[in-house]
Amino acid sequence: MMIDALVILVAGLLITLLPRSRRYASFLTWRASRKAGGQVPPERLPALRERAARRERATGVGILIAGVVWLLVSQFWPGWREQPGALYLVLSLLVVFSAACLAVVEIVWPGDVSDGPRFARATSPTFADYVAPQTRVVSGLFVGVSVVVLAGSLALAQSQWFDAATLWRSPVPFLLAAVPVLALLFALAIKRVLDAPQPARDQRELYWQDAIRAETLYTLAIPPAFVGALSLLIAAASLDNAASATATATGEIGPDWTGWLLFVGYVLPLLAIMAAAVAIASAGGVMRQFNRRLWSTVAPETGAEAN
């Protein structure tokens, strides 16, 4: 476990330091530009570069925190590595803390205001103006369903067919606490981004502010869904481990409903993930929603047709 923790810490440190490389920072800027719709005006590039670097550093810090937590676990609970859900716990720590740090970054730095005279925006766009309904629904559903499934998994610890100790030592309790907290963090981050001022010199600058804001909000909409989907799969695996522990200890296999429960627990999340991927892809990318809702004509001086 000590070696695992050290590997995680080194990986987190590398990801945190990578944005200091000019070449890698340029790659991050290019990737964010592609998501935001192509050729970003030169005056917007420094802010975009800094935003992309902050996100990458946040991911690295989240991995570092996960490594520290796993290091503490290895010191105080050395037998954890032998637990059936040890790998799932490591994965849960990495995903949860990385997502949390990403949300915190957007809460602390929700927007970038350029120097020079600007005009305030007359309207107040909402989350629905930037992120397609399919993406919003998928994110909300995965968060809500995962909380219900995680709570139900712990409730099954009362059953004689699922080993309570195995379930309580699994990542399920951690995820049950983490998913609602993450949902609140991302909701606050989204609110902070939407409330950030958008003073602009002209329509062209405002358009690209909207494009970058849409990319930011899309980035904030996906992690809760990802954590929720991961939680569903981990809940199924944890129930499987608990059922196996009971069967090994008692020599009895559970009734048919337990087998069906495990089967559904594995299959339905996979089907839901595939359906969610199709739904999000059908939304048409980051640009379509805000173009359709906020820029229903030709985007100013970009030549891009609004959908």
Key terms:
single chain, mainly alpha, 307 residues
Q: Topology of this protein?
A:
Layout: H1 2-17, H2 22-36, H3 45-76, H4 86-108, H5 127-130, H6 133-155, H7 164-168, H8 172-195, H9 203-250, H10 256-282, H11 286-294
Summarize the structure.
The protein has 307 residues and is an all-alpha fold. The chain has one domain. It has helices at residues 2-17, 22-36, 45-76, 86-108, 127-130, 133-155, 164-168, 172-195, 203-250, 256-282, 286-294.
Give the uncertain stretches in residue-range form: 303-307
End-to-end Cα distance, whole Å, is: 52 Å
Question: How do the SSEs run, as a string of H and E?
Answer: HHHHHHHHHHH
Domains (count): 1
| Strand-pairing-aware structural class | mainly alpha
Radius of gyration: 22 Å
Beta strands, count: 0
Tell me about the largest β-sheet: none
> Roughly what is the average pLDDT, rounded to an integer?
85
Strand content: under 5%
Instruction: Note the total helix count.
Output: 11
Shape: globular
Name the helicity range: over 70%
